[in-house]
């Protein structure tokens, strides 16, 4: 989507940096996504004004975090994409509490806290993406999920048009799902973490990294697991049992390392990836009677 010159000028007055016609394939770990104008915010405080301005001008918008768990449609996109201030996301530790900006890198946050002898989040070390994305999805791995440590979240509540702070107890964190509204924008989080010596944290991190390297296609373009695991089951094992590893639609392929990772081997389109997802879902439904639900977030136009 292209904005009018007038709107662009007013956004600039609010300190927003504009990048026209950006291919979002460059902003996602899958390497898939169409083109649109990109708005880089400089300060949290300007978010309500920026959002009101876009709403007044009827410009649809979406916030993109690390781009590691999203499948974006092809072609010219009918919305603009916003980014939180990312130049130097704040991270600070005070006693057992860590205060972290949503734009911070998730792994960077785990390491930052570990160096200050705060642990608990070791399992999250290899999960790619931003802290904001991890909060929204309640990212988890190796028995850890971020929601367990959340004490407070500062967010932009689109429904109220203002910044708000929620207490951790008032947020529901389920398996890869939270009670945040789809248009809530995560800004900052306060976590409460257990004290643990750095070297002990490091030992657990090493084990998680080894497990991940042994089972996941880390050097290929993917969005992590495509499907949620069904209750008591494993999407990866079912797809593997169907011998679908290596199965392709165009350049979209079921990883030959982990069957619940779908990779972009070169220049896959969103349409290729969607067809692959549908084909695999159908095969699993017919054979196992299980309807797999997407784990990856699909940004339909
Ligand atoms: N399996 C196979 N073949 C495969 C893949 C897995 O037989 O191709 C089997 C494994 O041998 C194992 C079982 O399936 O017995 C489970 O596999 P794994 O331990 O790899 O875990 P997963 O359930 O597939 C989940 C998360 C991952 C997370 C890992 C480690 C989901 C959908 N996936 O994968 O998270 O990294 O556990 O904790 O919950 C993600 O969310 O994007 C993600 C990758």
Summed up, what is this model?
With 301 residues, the chain is of the alpha+beta class.
Rg measurement, Å: 20 Å
Please mark out the parts with pLDDT under 50 across 5 or more consecutive residues, or reply none.
none
Structural class: alpha+beta
Order of helices and strands: HEEHEEEEEHHEEEEEEEHEHEEEHE
Biggest sheet strand line-up = 6-7-14-10-11
Main sheet properties: 5 strands, antiparallel
Keywords:
single chain, 301 residues, alpha+beta, 5-stranded antiparallel β-sheet, 4-stranded mixed β-sheet, 27% helix, binds uridine-diphosphate-2(N-acetylglucosaminyl) butyric acid
Description:
The mean pLDDT is 96. It is globular and about 55 Å long. The chain has 301 residues and is of the alpha+beta class. The relative contact order is 0.13. It has seven helices and 19 strands. Strand 12 and strand 13 form a beta hairpin. Bound molecules: uridine-diphosphate-2(N-acetylglucosaminyl) butyric acid. Residues 141-142, 215, 224-225, 228-229, 234, 236-237, 240, 258-260, 295 line the site of uridine-diphosphate-2(N-acetylglucosaminyl) butyric acid.
């Amino acid at each position: 989507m292209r904005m009018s010159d007038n709107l662009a000028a007013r956004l600039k007055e609010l300190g927003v940096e504009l990048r026209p016609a950006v291919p979002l394939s460059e902003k996602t770990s899958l390497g898939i996504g169409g083109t649109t104008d990109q708005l880089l915010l400089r300060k949290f405080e300007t978010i309500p004004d920026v959002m009101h301005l876009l709403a007044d001008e009827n410009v649809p918008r979406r916030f993109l975090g690390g781009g590691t768990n999203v499948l974006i449609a092809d072609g010219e996109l009918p919305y603009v994409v916003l980014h939180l201030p990312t130049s130097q996301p704040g991270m600070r530790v005070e006693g057992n509490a860590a205060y972290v900006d949503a734009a911070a890198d998730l792994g960077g946050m785990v390491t930052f806290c570990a160096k200050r002898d705060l642990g608990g989040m070791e399992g999250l070390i290899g999960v790619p993406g931003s802290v904001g994305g991890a909060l929204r999805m309640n990212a988890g791995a190796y028995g850890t999920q971020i929601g367990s440590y959340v004490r407070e979240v500062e967010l932009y509540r689109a429904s109220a048009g203002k910044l708000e702070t929620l207490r951790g107890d008032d947020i529901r964190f389920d398996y890869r799902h939270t009670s945040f509204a789809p248009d809530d924008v995560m800004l900052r989080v306060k976590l409460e973490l257990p004290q643990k010596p750095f070297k002990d944290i490091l030992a657990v991190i090493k084990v998680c990294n080894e497990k991940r390297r042994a089972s996941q296609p880390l050097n290929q373009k993917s969005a992590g697991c495509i499907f949620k695991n069904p209750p008591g089951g494993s999407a990866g094992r079912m797809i593997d049992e169907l011998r679908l590893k290596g199965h392709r639609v165009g350049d979209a392929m079921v990883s030959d390392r982990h069957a619940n990772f779908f990779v972009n081997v070169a220049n896959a389109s969103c349409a290729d990836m969607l067809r692959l997802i549908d084909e695999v879902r159908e095969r699993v439904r017919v054979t196992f009677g299980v309807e797999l639900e997407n784990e990856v977030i699909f940004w339909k136009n």
